[in-house]
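Usage

Read records sequentially. Each one opens with the input sequence:
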Amino acid sequence: MMQSKYFRTCLGIIALLLIIYLGSKISFLFNPIVSIFNMLLMPVAISGFFYYLLRPIVDYLERRKIKRPLGVFMIYFVFAGLFAIFILLVWPTLKEQIENFIENAPNLVDDLQKQMNHLGQNPFWSRFMPSESEIYSSLMDYANKAMTTISNSITNLITVVSSFVVIIATVPIIMYYMLKEKNKFSFKLLGILPRRYRKDGQEVLSDIDNALSNYIIGKVLLNLVLSVLMYIGFLIIGLPYSLLLTLISFVLNFIPYVGALLAAIPVVIVGFIESPSIAIWSVVVIVIAQQIQDNILTPVIYGKQLDIHPLTTIVLLLVGGDFYGILGVLLAIPAYMILKIIVVRVYELFLAEKIEDA
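and closes with the structure output:
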């Protein structure tokens, strides 16, 4: 009986459940580890993001006989120059739009109410949405909440950036050593594995590295092009707060699928407050830019690399958001890609033959 596969499986499940139960009773022992993980997650995630963006440049400089530490400092110097240009040329306009938006947020809600009332007096629109209807009331309620949320988010973002100066200051240091050391960490990680699995471990790390690199670089390129197209379109149609709304759209578009919808909401609301025609034209600009991205740029940059079902993506975003908020939403897809590569390789090594022979 002890040799029965069913008995061994049941015994393993019982042992696993017992370990989980005992672990829950001494969870206080893991609190320091969880606290350290939460503290390091943000700077390490940001450092990893920029590591994959800047690594191709450092590798290119290394091929040109420039040592990696010097290459990293050269990139930092260029970024310092770009940051100075941003402060001198872009920040004054962006700062003015942020301050005006926060200051005028209550008035924007009133203006939205007036626009809706004015639209309700139009004979054509009044047939579809009379001012006393529940749809009208719900729409106004959602719009009011959206404007409040946008205003609070901008304010909170400024507060967060100011509060975590120490964390932000650690990012260049962490990123420097990541770029300088290159693949040394992966070699140390492989040293933990038994010798017979090191080749497979190397392939797994290589697959993870390529997947993250392609995903991050491709996502940044797509969002940059999309943002430029949207900003040009917003300037042409005369959309207020065009630079601020473009920046918000750039960040939100890192969220797969739902990001484009979330980014469009504040744009349409602000455009509608200006005039219904501006709202319509803002939708046209967003749709055209998205079509260029989805049908022209995405196939060229990604091809068929991102084979993730939309339903899987939605579930990942919900789970990631529940655990770590906006950071969890942004990290959900990369974390899934890493886990999928590891699980597939473990299955191929240890379970595939046993399941097929059973």
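Summary fields computed downstream for this record:
- Residues 222 and 293 are 7 Å apart (CA to CA).
- The two ends are 18 Å apart (CA to CA).
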